[in-house]
Write a structure and sequence with these properties.
Layout: H1 3-13, H2 18-25, H3 29-47, E1 50-53, E2 55-60, H4 86-98, E3 103-108, H5 116-129, E4 133-137, H6 143-152, E5 156-158, H7 166-172, H8 178-190, E6 194-197, E7 200-201, H9 208-220, E8 225-226, E9 229-230, H10 247-260, H11 270-275, H12 279-284, E10 290-291, H13 298-301, H14 317-330, E11 334-335, H15 343-348
Parallel strand pairs: 1-10, 1-11, 2-3, 3-4, 4-5, 5-6, 6-8, 7-9
The structure holds 5'-deoxyadenosine and FE2/S2 (inorganic) cluster.
5'-deoxyadenosine binds at residues 69-70, 160, 162, 200, 229, 231-232, 234, 271, 306-307.
């Protein structure tokens, strides 16, 4: 098996076997560079040079779950908790619009304080005030809630399955179930949301075989957006003494996913930029076409600590936007205008 042969197959068929994926995940040196180059070419051909920006609003740092890797886990007594009120969230969304964002991502821990009615009301108010696409990223809810959010105007939903290895999933997500998570993702898809899912790279105990399965599961779920990033150990979690995920392996996963899902949206994630000062640039050069800068006030940014050392944490939102624009331009790309709907979603309608 040669990397070039596999890449040519991926380029023409957008399909790979698990063994071929594993082979690519193990590539090094020139072969790895070739993988990145193919992914960059496919990105250019299918989604072009536009990089779309999403304004991320982390509106609550409370979480009822206890994920082993996450700094917001309920057992972390050191975590600083905050909840933004409805009007404040709407104000930040307006500010994001004024800065040029045409998508806002409403993200939080799993916080039941935000009932179905509260979330619907926030969505409706934002939609009334500004013309933005709304992405929700608030975790597992009931079918009725997902349906109500969609009817209230939510366009997209992000929820990673985190790992496709059931054993690892159960170990790192006490009280949660892999089956329920996948069921939620299928409901979200069936309700006509643009669906985003993905996984963590480098969870302790995770193997290359697991990562190949993760990639295949994203493919099977037919994800319109693909969020993947390296695991970063948080000092106030049970995984504090473990190693972080690899930047290189993350870039290989991004590249392979771009080959398999040429018209989906793939962000260069903040976690990637946190582990490597050039991480986001590298991601954008091997398949990614989205960046999600935080648009919250500094006072909240500091408190939403999924993992330590997050970049941009001391920058105000306007500065972040300028910084990211100059990165995009320096790569010979441009900032996308409009909603930046996933082409994968658009073409299936
Ligand atoms: N390192 C990297 N990513 C993390 N996330 C949560 N905790 C960590 C961590 N320690 C990711 C999860 C979640 C997303 C919002 O943040 O994958 O889905
Ligand atoms: Fe909330 Fe992990 S503890 S998502």
């Amino acid at each position: 098996m040669k990397v070039k042969e596999i890449l040519d197959k991926a380029y023409s068929e957008h399909h790979l076997t698990k063994d071929e994926i594993k082979f690519l995940l193990n590539s090094e040196g020139e072969e790895k560079e070739l993988l990145f180059a193919y992914a960059d070419r496919v990105r250019k051909e299918y989604v072009g040079d536009d990089v779309y920006l999403r304004g991320l609003i982390e509106f609550s740092s409370y979480c009822k779950n206890d994920c082993f890797y996450c700094g917001l886990r309920r057992s972390n007594r050191e975590a600083q908790r905050y909840r933004m009120q409805e009007d404040e969230i709407v104000e930040v969304a307006k500010r994001a619009y004024d800065m040029g964002y045409r998508t806002v991502v409403l993200q939080s821990g799993e916080d039941p304080y935000y009932t179905k009615d509260k979330v619907c009301s926030i969505i409706k108010k934002i939609k009334k005030e500004v013309d933005v696409a709304i992405t929700l990223s608030i975790g597992e809810r009931s079918y009725e809630e997902y349906k109500a959010f969609r009817e209230a105007g939510a366009d997209r939903y992000l929820m990673r399955f985190e790992t496709s290895n059931r054993e690892l999933y159960q170990k790192y997500h006490p009280g949660m179930s892999f089956e329920n998570r996948i069921e939620c993702l299928r409901w979200i898809k069936s309700l006509g949301y643009e669906l985003g899912t993905g996984f963590l790279i480098g969870l302790p105990g995770q193997t290359i075989d697991d990562l190949a399965n993760d990639i295949l599961l994203v493919y099977e779920l037919d994800s319109d957006m693909i969020g993947i990033g390296p695991f970063i150990p948080h000092p106030h979690t049970p995984l504090k003494d473990t190693e972080a995920g690899s930047v290189d392996l993350t870039l290989k996963c991004i590249s392979i996913l771009r080959l398999l899902m040429p018209d989906s949206n793939i962000p260069a994630t903040t976690a990637l930029g946190t582990l490597d000062p050039l991480g986001r640039q590298k991601g954008l050069k091997c398949g990614a076409n989205i960046v999600m800068p935080n648009v919250n006030d500094l006072k909240y940014k500091l408190k939403y600590e999924l993992y330590p050392g997050k970049i941009c944490i001391n920058e105000d939102a306007t500065k972040c936007r300028g910084c990211i624009e100059s990165i995009i331009i320096s790569l010979g790309r441009k900032v996308g205008q409009g909603f930046g709907q996933s082409r994968h979603y658009e073409l299936k309608k």
